[in-house]
Amino acid sequence: EDQVTQSPEALRLQEGESSSLNCSYTVSGLRGLFWYRQDPGKGPEFLFTLYSAGEEKEKERLKATLTKKESFLHITAPKPEDSATYLCALSSSGSARQLTFGSGTQLTVLP
Amino acid sequence: GAVVSQHPSRVICKSGTSVKIECRSLDFQATTMFWYRQFPKQSLMLMATSNEGSKATYEQGVEKDKFLINHASLTLSTLTVTSAHPEDSSFYICSAIPTMGDTQYFGPGTRLTVL
After folding, report:
1. Which residues of chain B have pLDDT under 50?
2. Neighbours of B53 (CB within 10 A)
3. pLDDT tens figures, B65-91
4. CA distance, residue B58 to nearest chain A CA (Å)
5. CA–CA min distance A49, chain B (Å)
């Protein structure tokens, strides 16, 4: 059974204080590992798709990396507008493109 | 690119009435769309997978006669909550995958309140 575990559940950072969010996973055959950002009362916003171990992708202050067991979302010099819940999800080769979600990390960046 | 819209964004209805929610992929065609439900401070719960031109596949525990899904075109899927009751009040979110892609793009969600 595919599983996704995110840690920490909540993270409070000062503006400019870099950190990383963790997504551990077990899957029979990885089709894709996805990161989304969700603001309160809104649908998830797509950030990155990673397909294979060693792959990295960047967008502004965010960088996502992937190993065979984990993915990290690195946030460099965060700003208050980066405050949101970050969701990790995976799609496996036998899942008909359905996603298995982690429970999310609620990030708060204080000014 | 890859924009998904939902309508309405918010709906309040009386118990016993039916409510239809539309999900549209605005700039791509989507063979597959998904419907989720999200409770406060919880992650998304998949309700059903909708494939264009065929019957939806419902997750275990989701009543297909209560949550009617129609995916009549490559850009539109609808969810109808029939005979809504207060326990159906929730945040409903749809997503769509481009026909040749792997990434799900989500709509902004619909807040349903049943009085």
Report:
1. none
2. 9
3. 999 999 989 999 999 999 999 999 999
4. 12
5. 7
